[in-house]
Amino acid sequence: MRAAKTELGRSKPHRQASEIMKLGRMGSFHQNRLSFMRVLLRRATSENWTFERSLFDIDSQGVGQAIYTAKTGKSRYSLVAFANDLPPEKRSDRVIATEWDASFALFDGIPTPSDFARLRKNIPAQEAGRVTKKELSISRANRSVRLWDHVVNSLAAGDQPKLNLIEDVGYLMRTTAVYGSGKFGAADRETLLERPEFQGSFQVEMLTVYLIRTFVMDLVEHMAHAKAPETAVKLKPSLRRKFGIGNSTGLGMAPFLIKHPMLLNNWIAAKEEALARVRNVEWVAQKDFQIFTSLLPRAVKKY
């Protein structure tokens, strides 16, 4: 990799692969502007994507279905969600599990009643079901045993959940798979290459997870209200922002990385190029420096 140069001709080289391509270091990477989800959210913001909840038919036990649609300009993508009241003894994150707290499909467009009926039959079955090229991804998720009941009970009582518990766990549901690229008959990657919103890596999966998070946050507030409609409150925005979506397995990533060394190189090289350019900056405007100094304490506190 070539060194990044400054206007004065001096340069600091990229870090060597022997320094950064270690499992311990790579496993501790934090998200940055080049991270897949950050790329998706910047595009959604700059292009004024809109989101709509067209269906939320969930009972007091958390059982039912919902549809969330992302409008990206020319295209529409709908997360079809099926919620389940899963007994604790059946909750498992293993690949051999056959039931989950929720299952999902990212549908290309807005599903018709016949589409919805077909998805209702197949998506909760996951591996035992089948989907079509209209489905861009399928997924399933389980509730966090440590946090779900605490958040529901706190909101139902009119209180906010404890910050330290939220920060310790970080999610209310965790996916046990987000399948795409032709899995079980879903759309092949090649069919989406001409769509600008999906040309980056894992953008279908990131949109799926983003909409799943929206559904989960709505679901926990709905169940708190069902438990105590007279006293229940919603999550404070400052706390709501702290929740993500967990991931309980990464089995597919290991063989993927082994089989795609050039792609992995490009991801890491993009990050190293960005860092090298920053390290070679010798002068910045005062307003840019003030932005940096204002964000630095937040970064130090977080990491």
Structure description:
The chain is α+β, with helices and mostly antiparallel strands and 303 residues long. The chain folds into 2 domains: 1-30 and 262-303, no CATH class; 32-251, no CATH class. It has 11 helices and 9 strands. It has helices spanning 17-20, 23-26, 36-46, 113-122, 148-156, 163-169, 203-227, 237-240, 253-259, 261-279, 286-302; strands spanning 4-5, 11-12, 50-58, 64-71, 76-83, 102-108, 135-143, 171-180, 244-247. Strands 3-4-5-6-7-8-9 form a 7-stranded mixed sheet. A two-stranded antiparallel ribbon has the order 1-2. The longest helix is centred in the last third of the chain and has 25 residues, at 203-227. The protein is globular and about 60 Å long. It starts with a strand and ends with a helix.
How would you summarize this macromolecular structure in one to three sentences?
Helix content is 39%, strand content 19%.
The largest sheet is: 7 strands, mixed
* Major sheet: arrangement of strands: 3-4-5-6-7-8-9
Report, as a whole number of angstroms, the end-to-end distance: 29 Å
Beta strand %: 15-25%
Q: How much helix, percentage-wise, in residues? A: 25-40%
**What is the element string, with H for helices and E for strands?**
EEHHHEEEEHEHHEHHEHHH
- Count every beta strand, where a strand is a DSSP E run of 2 or more residues: 9
Mean pLDDT reading: 90
* Domain tally: 2
Indicate the overall shape.
globular
Please identify the structural class as seen in this structure: alpha+beta
* Contiguous uncertain segments of 5+ residues: 1-9
Count every helix, treating DSSP H or I runs of 4 or more residues as helices: 11
Radius of gyration: 22 Å
